[in-house]
Batch of 3 targets.
Target 1
Amino acid sequence: MSLPTPEPPQDPTAAAYWRGAARGEFRVARCSHCGAHVWFPRSHCPQCTSPDLELVPVSGEGVVYSFTVNRRPAGVYKDAGAVVIAYVELAEGLRVLTNLVDVEPERVRVGQPVRAVYDAGLLRFAPREVAD
Amino acid sequence: MTARGTAVLVGAYEHPERIIPVGSVAGVVADVVHGALADAGLGIERVDGFFYAGVHQGVNLVTMADYLGLGPLSYYDSTDTGGASPVSQVGHAATAIAAGRCSVALVAMGGRARSEKRGASGGPVPQDGFEGVYGLTQPAAYALAAQRHMYEFGTTGAQLAEVRVAAAHHAQFNPHALYRDPVTVAQVLDSPLISDPLHRLDCCVTTDGGGAVLVVSEEVARELPRRGVRVLGHGEAVKTPGAGRIDLTYTAAAVSGPRAFEEARISVADIDMASLYDSFTITVLLTLEDLGFCDKGKGGRFVEDGALLAPHGALPFNTDGGGLCNNHPDRRGGMIRLIEAVRQLRSEAAPEVQVPDCEFALVQGQGHALGTRSAAATLILGREDVR
C-alpha cells in the first residue's frame, strides 16, 4: 500500500528547495561562508549566521539512524495503515526525517541502507541493495 | 545573581478532577488559582507576579489576569516551553523575587485537552514541510528516541515497562489518579503497539484540569501558617536538531540538570525523591541518565528491581502516579510533577508512598518532543528547614 502524498507546506525561505524537489532533485543547503551543510533549508546559516546558503546536490544514499512504525497515524495518514517514520543519516552526515517506502515494517532495522526517492515532491527513502 | 533559597513555595493545588465535561479553560485555571491561594493562606490582592503560558488553549496571560481580577502586577512571564513551562516559570519567579521585582508570584496552568477536542493553535512553522508532512505524531517522535536507545544500549521493552509499573504502583494510593490499577511488565508489553517500540502503556494519560503554585519572598513566607518549600536551584535549556545533526540519545536535561545542581550546591546523591517528566516511559529513562542518576545507556538497568518505587527504592519517583497514571492536564505535565514534589517535602504525600525524612526533591520538566526539538527545566527543592 502506498502512502498518501500530502502537499508539503512550503516555507518561503525554502522556495528554491521546493522547486528542485518538484523536479525530483535532492539538494541540501550549504553555507557559502563556512561550508556547513544545513537541513532543512532556511534563511541564514545556523552555524555562522551567513545569509548566503546555496543548494547543492547530494547522493541521496544513507542509512536508517532510527525508525518507528506508527500504528495510530493521524490527519491525512489516518487510513494509511502502519506508517514507517525514520531518521535517515545521509552519506554527507545530515540526519533527515522521512518516511520509508517499499519496505515491510517488520523488516526495517537501524543501519539499513536506503536511497532517496521523490514521491510527488515529497522526500522519502526506499531500501537499497548493497554489495557485501 | 543566584536565587538559591531566597524564594519559598508556599501554596500548591492540583485540580481534583481528571475529566471536566462541562466547563471552560479560564474556569479551570481560576479554580486552581483559588485552591493554591487558600493552601498558602494568601489573598489574591497580594499577587504581584503572574506566570502563565496560556497560549495552548487560547486564553492568554492578559485575558487570564482580567478574569482573575489580578493587577496591576509588577512582573509577569508567559514563557511557553510546552510541558516544561511551569518548571521554568518557578525558576524565573525565584529570580524575579531575588531581584526584588515581585514578592508573591502566582504560577498557574490548566486546560480541557481531554474534553475539548481542539488541535494545536498557531500558524505555519518552518519545519512543516520537513516533519509534520510525514505523519510525525507525538508518540512517534518519542518512539524514534526509544528505538535508537535500544539500538545503542540494548535497552529492552521490559525495562521501559518497569517505569510504568512503578508509576502504577504509586497511583493505587492516589484517589484522584485517572488509572489506579497496578500493572505488570507483561501487561505493558501486551498492550497494543502505538508507535514501535512504544506500547499504549508506555504513554501518558490525557486529562482535563491543571494546577497552581505560589512562590513568595522569605519575608512573606514568614507571615504564613503553612510549611513552605525552598527553591534551591534552577536550570533550563533548549535542544534543537542542530540543522540536521540530531542525536536522539540525550535530552536538554543534560544541560539544565548540572546548572540546577550547581546553584543548589548539592549533588545527585542528596536527592531523596524525583518528580520526572513522564510523557512516555523513554522520557524517564533518558532523564535519569542525563541528570546523572546513572551512566548514559544504563537507564534500563537502573529502573529494574524496583529502584523507582516509593518509599524505599533507590530513587522514589512520581509518587502520585505521574503523568503515566495520575494526571497530564492540557497535555502538559510539569505543574503536576512540581506539586507532588511539594507534597513530599511537606510530608503530605499519601502515607504509603511518603519518603521518610524527605529533604531534597528534584523536579524535571520536558516540553515539545524529544524526537525533534525540546526544552528542559530542572528545579531542586528543599524542605523548609534546609539551608
Note: The radius of gyration of chain B is 19 Å.
Target 2
Amino acid sequence: MLLIAAPLGLAFITPLLGLLSERLTRYVPAAAMAFNFTLGLLLLPRVLREPWIVETAGLRPPFSIHLVAGPLGVGLSLLIALVGLLVSIYAIGYVREGPVAKYHTLYLLLLVGATGMVLSADLFNLFVFFEILCISSYALVGYRGDRAGIESSAKYLVQGAIGSSLILLGIGFVYGLFGTLSMADIARNVDSVTPMKVFISMAFLITGFGVEAAVLPLNAWLPDAHSSAPSSISAILSGIAIKAGLYAVARVVFTIYGADTMPMLVLLVGILTLLVGEMSAFSQNNIKRLLAYSSIGQIGLIVFALGLASASGVQGALFLVVSHALAKALLFLSVGYMIYRTGSMEISSLYGMGRRMPVSSLCFTIGAFSLVGLPPFIGFAAKFTVIRAALAGAAPLLTALVAIVLLGTVVEGAYFFRIVQGLHFRPPPEGAAPEQTDQYEAPVSALVPICLLAAIIVAVGLYPGVLTKYLGPAAMDLLDKAAYIHHVLGV
Amino acid sequence: MSFLAGYVQYIGSFGLVLIGLYIVLVKTNLIKVILGINLIDTGVNLFLVSVGYIRMGTAPIFSQAEAAGREMVDPVPQALVLTAIVIGVSVVALALSVAIRLYEHYGTLNLCKIRELKW
C-alpha cells in the first residue's frame, strides 16, 4: 500500500514545494523511489512465501478494491523503483529548462501509475493506474514544447485515448458478463460463459493495452514519442511504460482468461513486431529514433517469449523485461548528454565520442552489447533463456521462428556495432568542438546512474542466478491461475 | 422493430462509439479529432451505465424498509463511470492544450499539413 501511497502523496506535494524552492523538487522523485526500492526489497522475501493481499475498506476480496503483492508484482515494482531512482538522479542535473517542478510531479505520477498497475488486483483499478501512467507520459513527451515534441505528443495522445476507450469497453463487457471486477473472481468464473463472449471482451482489452505495449499494428506513436521526449523520459518510457502495457496484456491473457488457444497468433505478432522494429531501426540516422525502433524489436521478442506460454518461456520473457529495461535506460541516458553536447541527434555527429566522452561511450557500448546479447552481459542470459525455452519442445515451426528471431538479432547487431565503431574508431566530424576532455564529459550526477546501470548489467550477466531464482516464482504468479485465485479469494 | 426496444441503450452507445471512431479516422482537424475522442468516451460511459441499469430500478439505499424488496440498480458501474468521466475530462483538457501549442508552432490545426515526423 505504501509503495503507491508514498510516491503519490509526494507527487502532489511537489508543486507546493516548487513554490518554495525549485531546487528542492529535484530531489523528491529520487527520495520517493529510494523509499520504494528499500520497501520492495524488504517485502520480497515475504511475498515469495505467500502473496500479500492488501484490503481496503475492510472487506475481503472479491468485494471492494484490493491490491495483491505477489512475487511478480513486487519484483516488477522493484525494477520500476530501481530504474526510476537512477533516472531521477540523472534528471537532477539534466532537466534544467522549463517548468522543472511540473516535470518532477509528472515523472513521479508516471512511476506511481506503473507501480499501481503491477500491484493492482482489480481490473478497473488497473485501468485507472494505466490512465495515470498514460496521461503523465503524454504530457512529458511534449515537455520541452518544441515542434517535434508537441506533434508526437498529439499523436500519442489520440492513439492512447482510443486505446483507453477500448479498454473501458472491454471492462464494460467483463462486468456485464461476470458482475465483478476482481481479476481473481473473473478468472474463477471465466469458464461459465461461452467462449465467444469471452473472446470479445478479451479482444477489446488486449487491443487497448496493446496500444501502450506497442505491439505491431499499434505502435505508430512509439518512435516519435520516444525520440522527441527528453532523454530521461525516453529512458523511462522505453524501460518502464511499455513494459507496464505488456504486463497488463500478459495478466489479462494468462491469469484472467487462462488462454492457451492464442499463442500461435501471439507468436506471429511477436515475430512481426521484432522484424519490423529491427529493420526500421537499421535504416535510421537519428540515434534516438534508432533506439526507439530497437525497443519495438525487443518488445516483439518479449511478446514472442510470452507466446510460448510455457513456464520457461514466460520466465525468459520476464528476464528480457528486466534486461531490456536496464539496457535501454542505460542507452538513452548515456546518449542524452552526447546529444546535449553536440546539439544533434544524427549518428554521424557522434563519431569520435569515445575520446571526448570516454565514460559515457563505454557505458553506451556495454548497453548496446547487452541488447544484442553478447555473453558477459545480462542480455545474453535473457536471450539464451528465451531461445532455450523455444527449442525445448523441438517443434519444427518453433525452430523456424527461432531462426527468424536470430536473424533479427543479427540485424540488431549490425546497427549497434555500426554506432559503436563510429563512437570509438572514427574521427570526429569536421567543425566539432575542440577536445577539452574534462569539460566535455557528462556531469557526475549523470555519470553515477549510468555507471551503476552498466555495473548492474555486467554483474547480473556474470551471475544470472541472482535474478533467475526470483523469476521462476514470478512466472508462476502469471501463469498459475488456480494458485492466484486461491491466494486472493481463499477458496 | 419492437424486439430492439430492450437494447436501445446499447445500440445508442455503440452508435456513439462508432461515430466518434469515424470522426477520429476521417477528419483532419485536430479539434474535430478531439471531439471524436470525446464522443467515444461518452458512448463508452453510456454503455457502462446501461450494463448495470434495471428498468424502474431504484438506488440501493437500505435506510427505508419498504424500498428494500424492490429491484435496484447496480451502483458499481455508476461509480466506474464517475471515474471514467473524470479521466475523460482530463484527457480532453490535455489534448486541447496540446492543440493550442500545436497551433502556435505550425499556424494550422490540419493534421495533414503537420507531418515532420515520419516512419
Note: The first strand of chain A starts at residue 52 and ends at 55.
Target 3
Amino acid sequence: MDSARKRKVRLVVALGTAVLLAAALVYTSFSASTEALEPSQLLAASPGTSAELTGRVVKGSVRRQEESLRFRVADRDDASKSIPVAYSGTVPDPFRGGREIILTGTVEGEGVFVGERDTLVTKCPSKFSSADAA
Amino acid sequence: MLPSSAALGSAALALAFLAAVFAVVAALVGSRGQARWVDASRRAVYALCALLTACVVVIEVAFASDDFSFELVQQHSSIDTPAFYKLGAMWSSQEGSLLLWAWVLSIASSAALYATRNRLREVVPYATATMAAVAAFFTGLLLFGKGVDPFATLSPAPADGVGLNPLLRHPSMMIHPPMLYSGYVAFTIPFAFAIGALAARRLDAAWIRSTRRFALIAWAFLGLGLLLGARWSYTELGWGGYWAWDPVENAALMPWLTGTAFLHSIMVQEKRGMLKVWNVSLIVATFSLALMGTFLVRSGVLQSIHAFGDSTVGPYILGLIATVLLGSTALIVSRIDDLRSPRRIDSLASREAVFLVNNLLLVALCATIFWGTFFPLISELFTGERSSLAAPWFDQYTTPIAVVLVLFTGVGPLLAWRRISWASARRVFVVPAAVALVTGVTLVMLTDAAESFWALTLFVFAAFALTGLAQEFWRGATARRSLAGGSLPAAFLAVTSRNRRRYGGYLVHAGIAVLLVGIAASSSFQTKRDVTLRPGESAVVGDRTVTYERPTVSVDREAIEIGAVLGVERDGEPQATLRPSRRYFRPGAAEVGTIAGYFEGEATSEVGLDAGPTSDTWTSLGPNISGLRGDARDADRGFRACVGGDPGTPPQCRQLSRLMRAAAVDPRLQPVALAQIERLQTATAERLARGYLRADAPATFRVIVDPLVTWVWIGGLLALTGALIAIWPGRRPRRTPAAGGELEALKEAKYREIRDAELDHAAGKLSDEDFALLDAELRREAVEILDREPVGRGSAS
C-alpha cells in the first residue's frame, strides 16, 4: 500500500472512531441527564417524578427535623408558588432562606420533594447584603 | 478645589481607553512598514499599563482607607474587614474583576512588546493591534457598560460598608481569582501573536518562540488558580471534596486542557515545522475558552455555585467571543495555503506522533467537558427542556481519558524526535515497564486496589511514568557526568539548569502523574460517614475511631462559633485531636441585630483536618442549634421587654430604657446607648453559649477518611515547580545588534536542537545510526541558517 493511501485509511479509521465515540457521548448524555424544573412546574407533577429542582428557599421556612432539613422552595421569579422539600446530607455553608439552590431528587407522596443525599448546591453570593437577611 | 480621587480614577480610565484605541490605530498604520507608528503603538500600550495601574492604585487606596464614598468600597468592604481582605475585596465585585482583567492584560502586553521590541517586525504590529483591541474592549466595557463603573460614588458617604462575605475570607480566596484571571489574560499574548503571524503571513515558528514563555506562564497561573480553588473547596466549603464538575470549575479547566495541548504541539512546529493549522486553531480555542471562563462566572447562564448574580456585561463578552471565533476562522481559512507543511510524521514511534495523540486526547477531554457543561443549553435547544448532567456522567468519560494521559506523560519523554529504533525503545522501556508490572502485582496482592479497575490501571501507568521520568533524570545526569565529570548531584543540577525546558517539563509530568494518583485514590477508596454523636460517644470510620470529647463555644462581636473537640484513634493509638467548628455570623451591624440573628445570617465551616502522607482524616461539624436558637429568641423577647421598660423587669433595664429614651432625643447619647446594648447582648449570647455547653446536645459530624489526598496538593505543587523551572530564563545569549535578533533566535533554536539530540543519544534514546543521521541533518540545517547571515558578520561557511 502506498503511503498516501495508508494515510487516508488511517484518517478514515480515526474519524470513524471519533464519530462513534461522540455518538456514544451524545446518547448517554441525553439518557443520564436530569431535567431542571422550578417549583411551579413540579406542583402538578405526579409522585415519582425525578428532577433537578431549582429555585429560591422561602425565607423563614427552614426547619431542622432530627436528621433531615425541611424547607420550602419557590420559583426564582415568583415567590407565591412553592413546594415543600425534605433533604438530608451535607448542607453547604451559604445555605439559608432567600438563597437560590439546586437540588436533585424525586417528588414523593403528598407532593414533598425529597432530595438525594449530598446533592444540595447553594449559589454563592459574592457579597453579603443585610437586605438578604431572613 | 482638588478633584476627588474617584474623579482622577475615572479620568485615568478614560485615558486608558483612548490609549488602547490609539494603539490599535497606530499599530495598523505601522503595519504598512512605518516603524515610527509601530513604536508609537508600543508606547501607547506602556501608557495604557501606567494608566490602569493608576486606576488600581486609586481603588486600593480607597479600600485601604475605608473611603465609603466609593460605591465599590461600600458594597464590598467595611471598617471591620481585616486589612488583608480589604486589599483583595476589589475582585469580589464585577467591576473590580473586569478592571483586574484589563490591568493584567496591559502588564502582560507591555512585557510581550518589550520582549519583542527588536524582533518579528512584520508580526508585532498586528499582534499589538489585537492586544490593544482586547484592552480597549475591557476598558470600554468599564467606561460605558451599565452598572460596572468602578469609580461610582455615593453622596453623602455612608459611615460603614456592607462588608465582605465571610465565606470569601480565606487566604486562598484572595489569591485564587487573580491567579485564574492572570491565566486567562496571559493566553491573550500567544493568541495575539498567532493572529499577527497569520495576518503578516509569517507562519514559521518565530511567533511561537517569542510567546512560548507567555503560554507557559498562562498555563501555570491557570493551574495554580485551579489548585487553590480545589484546596479552598476541600478545607473551607464543608462538603469534603475538591472538585464537583461545577460549570465554572469546568470553564477554567477547559482552557487549561487546550493550553496543555498547545504547549506540546507548538514543540512539533518548532522542531519539525508541522501542525501549523492545528496550533493556530488551538490557541484561538484556548483564548475563546478563557473568555468563556470570564463570561460564565458573571453570566448566570448556567446554574453554578459560582454564578454571582446576573451580570449586565455578559452579552458583550459573548459578542467578543463570537468576533474572535469568526475573525480567526476567516483568517486561518484565508491563509490555509501558507499553513500547509510539506513534512509528514516519519514514524508512529516518535515523540511528535505521541504528542499528536496526546493532543487529540486532551482536546477530546475538553470537548467532553464542554458538552457536559453546556448540556443544559443544548438539551433546551433540542428538547425544550433544560436538563443537566451530574458528576457521574463526567467521571465516566474523563476517567479513561485521564488514565491514558498518565501513560503518555511517561511514554512521551522516553521517545526521541523523528524516530526511535527498536533497540533503543527496548533499552528505555524495559525498566519502567518492569516497575509498572511489579507495582500492579503488588497492589493486587496486598491492597484492595483491584476493586476499582480504572484506579488500578492508573496506578500502574503512573508507576511506569514516574519510573520513566526518574530514569530520564538519571540518564541525563550520568551522561552529563561522563562528559563533564563532577559528582552525581552536581551533574544532576547542571543538566537540569542547562536544559530547563526539558527537565522542567519532566517535573511537570511527574507532578501531574502524582496528582492523578491522589485523585484516583481519594475518589475511589475514600470512606465517608455522617454520624450524630453526643459528647463522650464514638464512631468507627474506616480504620479510625472518632470520639466526640466535648463541645466548645466562643462569642465575639462578629460571630458565635460552635466547635467540637474530636479525638481520633487509629488501630487503638491516639492519632490526632481535631477541632471542627461552625461560625454563625451576625448579619448587619450590631445595633440593628438581635441574638437570634446570629443563626439566620451567614455560617461558615472550619474543617478539622489531620493530613498525612497515607491518608487524611477530614471532619466537619453540623451542630444541632435548635435549642440554642429557641433560647436566643426568648432572650431577644426578654431584651425587647427590658428595653421597653416593661413592669417587672430588673433595675438595669429601667436604666437602659431611660438611656434609650434620652438617646432618641439627644443624638450625642446614641453611642453610649449602643455600647450599652451591645454589652448586654454579648453578655446574653455568652450566657446562652454556656447553656449550650451544659446541654450535652448531640451534633452531626461528617467524617471522611481520604487516602493519598495529600498527594493531590504535592503533585500540583511539583508540577508548578516544574513549570517555574521551564519558565525561568536561561543565561542571556550575548547581545546582538537589533537587526540580527531574529536570525540569532533561529540559530539559538537550532543549536538547542543539536544539544537535545546529543543528550538523547547520550541517554540511550537514540541509537548510534539514528543519531548520526539526525545530527547530520540538523547540522546541515544550521549551516543553512548561517548562510543567510549578512556578509561581513559572523562566519558564513
Note: The radius of gyration of chain A is 22 Å.
